[in-house]
Amino acid sequence: MKLRTKIISVMLGLVMTVSATAAIGANSAQQDEISALFGGKKPTLKDLEDNKEKLKAITLKRFKDVKEGVFYITSFSLPELLGAGGISGYPDGTFRPNANIKTGEYIKLLVASMGYTAPPAPKGKPWYTGYVDVAKNQLKIISSQDNYNYDSNITRLDMVKLECKILGLQIDANDVSPIFTDAQGTGDERWLNLAFKEMLFRGFYDGKNRTAQPNATATRGQVAETVIRALQYRDNPELFKIKQREYYANLENGVKPTVTPAATPTPRPAGSPPPVTPGISEYPGDKTKQVMNGFVIPKMDYTSLGISGSGNSKDAAYFKEHDHIDIDIMTNVVLPDLDKQLQQLREIITPVLSPSAVSRIMDYTERKKTRKDLFNDGGFWSTDDNRAIALICGTTGVQIIIFEVGFKPYGWQ
């Protein structure tokens, strides 16, 4: 039976400590602290998000082997899973984030976190039998071809593969692009690529190469991250991806995520038209921003950039069925906030586009500042993730058109 609810099931508490004798019970004083934080009610994902700093403090106090700065703390995955009742740690006050987790344990954790229940295992059968049966027969996330050993440690590849399947995501059979340098030719790299594109899995990045370590054993810390991401993705996929893009754009560029302070409205240049903003949505937590086709953009009163989500009149019929965003920057006009325009342009494109695409756009746009003779030679080009971008130069500025992934302009093959 599936529980259709946005409230997180306390059944999670049974599955991160899994082995019946391994670890039971939590520090009662700190458990009372969490209960008081949510008024004795089961928290929703929004409750966890709104109280993540407080949960982080409780987590660091509870687990003596969990320190500030590790990935499952900076991303708040462990604090939020603790707040959800999904973990209780070990009696000695440790979480043991680097300990392994069995395949059967992970399946129970994943299935239970999504609100599914299972009957007790029949006498003489492994304790996880009911949840494996749900995964096989009800959810269809395990097939006869998978051939899992449920008593063996789960690999990072299988962790990601099952996460994608339980979220109903489908791989592209032709997608064997080399996102992870150590996963090519495995036959299952498509699952890793899918999880990467949906912002569910990032692997390890050294500034040049990205690796997945697909055959390495998943740890409890990594599993905590995976489960919380799956819950957040299921709740609101688009908002999840936007937040993850922002988080990793900062993290992978060596910048710690920060809370954006309230901005001061920027007067628009005299005579400049207001941007057209169809199909936008509010950006949670910052009233100066909004979301358009996956990009976080400043609202009209906080930028002098011209931003829209549709083509100009000549191209409207051609563009109308394809998600894209237009950004106009007046690089040849001496504006008091030209540097701010360039900064805002970088902030808009960095969370979504690859570093090479960001570099190409910014280099070209900044070059136009000193080249009045630079016209229309940016052209169409394709990014690493198969996204078409157009750079169009006019007398006084640059128009940047960024299309949805997979769109092929003007007869591209």
- Relative strand content: 5-15%
Estimate the helix proportion, in percent: 25-40%
Average of per-residue pLDDT values? 74
Number of contiguous helices: 14
Radius of gyration: 24 Å
Sheet having the most strands: 5 strands, antiparallel
Instruction: Note the gap between the termini.
Output: 46 Å
Please give the order of strands in the largest beta sheet.
6-7-10-9-8
Describe this structure in words.
The strands form 3 sheets. The protein has a 5-stranded antiparallel β-sheet, with helices on one face. The chain has a 3-stranded antiparallel β-sheet with strand order 3-4-5. A two-stranded antiparallel ribbon has the order 1-2. Strand 3 and strand 4 form a beta hairpin. It has 413 residues and is of the alpha+beta class. It folds into 2 domains: 10-154 and 217-251, no CATH class; 281-411, no CATH class. Helix 6 packs across helix 7 (129-138). It is globular and about 75 Å long. The chain contains 14 helices and 10 strands. The protein has helices at 28-37, 45-50, 52-62, 71-74, 77-83, 103-113, 129-138, 156-166, 189-197, 220-235, 237-251, 316-319, 338-349, 355-368, and strands spanning 204-205, 210-211, 281-282, 289-292, 295-298, 306-308, 324-329, 379-382, 387-393, 398-405.
